Amino acid sequence: MAVFQISNMDIKELYQLYQQHPCITTDSRNCPEGSIFLALKGEKFDGNQYALQALEKGCSYAIVDNSPLSTLNSKLIKVPDTLQTFKDLAREHRRQFQIPIVGITGTNGKTTTKELVAAVLQTQYNVLYTEGNFNNDVGVPKTLFRLNEEHDIAVVEMGASHPGDIKTLVETAEPTCGLITNVGRAHLQGFGSFEGVCKTKGELYDFLCHRDLPVFVNRDNEHLMRMVAERHMPDVYYYGQSDAADILIRGEVTACDPFLRFRWREQDHDTGYTGPWMEVQTQLIGAYNVDNMLAAITVGYVNNVPFDDINRALSSYTPKNNRSQMTVTEKNHLVVDAYNANPTSMKAAIDNFRLINTGGAPKMVILGQMGELGDVSSEEHQHVIDQLRQACFDEVWLVGDEYLQTDSRFRHFANVEDVKTAIGSEHPEHFYILIKGSNSNRLFELPELL
Prior knowledge:
This protein is of the alpha/beta class and about 450 residues long.
């Protein structure tokens, strides 16, 4: 029996097969009866090697780009590139549903913003949104395949660590509007420079601009404003904290001890209209989250979500996934932000923690090293040290070898296991503790010990 030969040009034919077997699995350990196995490859695995096993476990077909053991099997569908086929199939599926899709990317805050936008829209609509951090070229297709006829709107998060990443993702998801939370110095090893970050994140703007589709822009962010101006974006909705002209949604912090409270209102200097202030008490830590909240408000406003519903969604949102979480234990108050760290987010977290009123309780920070900074890694870690010196915290613990390259007398630990040992012997109590670092530092293992 011959192997099917289906090229990327025949994606509609392959999608028809998917419609007969509407479940795609990329894990040979999870093969529902009648599903389609898609053989992806990674640095340490090759799904092609498990295609026959997936068929034996119950998959009806297996999509491969390298026939396992040169086996001829009518249930093997050979394509030039399985990952590209996965994305093409996801785009074809997305095109079956004529609904708005909000695309979100940015250096910091994109996951929180995605969660907030979804929370606001869910007050009025059935919303599909990215689960966790499924924001790469595998996660985005998986999100799109969850679309069904019950959804009214979708919110798709898109991450990037190399040039061209966002272009690939927007061409897969085909958003109808979008926003960039901010651009900062992250993944510089992959992007090469800050301008490389701007160019790649700006690929969302490029996609929307060429199709005359709307974007939501933080008017206070000079980099985003420059990127919008360079592209002559035709349809822009603004938000921000400054009293700028033509702004749609304006907000300002009213309190942050420790949870953020802010107020916002609609205003338009062109028409002279200014709406009443709406105040929101949130469960988020950090004034830096105001911009994320304002982005969600603006998306909700444009999609006709009533103001009261917007406020209820924002006030009831509880952060998770180790992002801007306040946890009170029997021993300490913890501010846990241990999922991601780069120079921009690290500075914001330290600045915010410095301003928190602890009622006299001492402050301690446990900071993990930042990754993927390339040639500027030592420089950026030194900036963190300099900021910590000015903050004058009561206790500072630094985790990771990158801090050894800095001019620092703060306490240093090679890894999270060494930190656990110190906690076990010293039992820190009655502190407010900021835990901040990249996921790879595994600092998320510390809260249960503190």
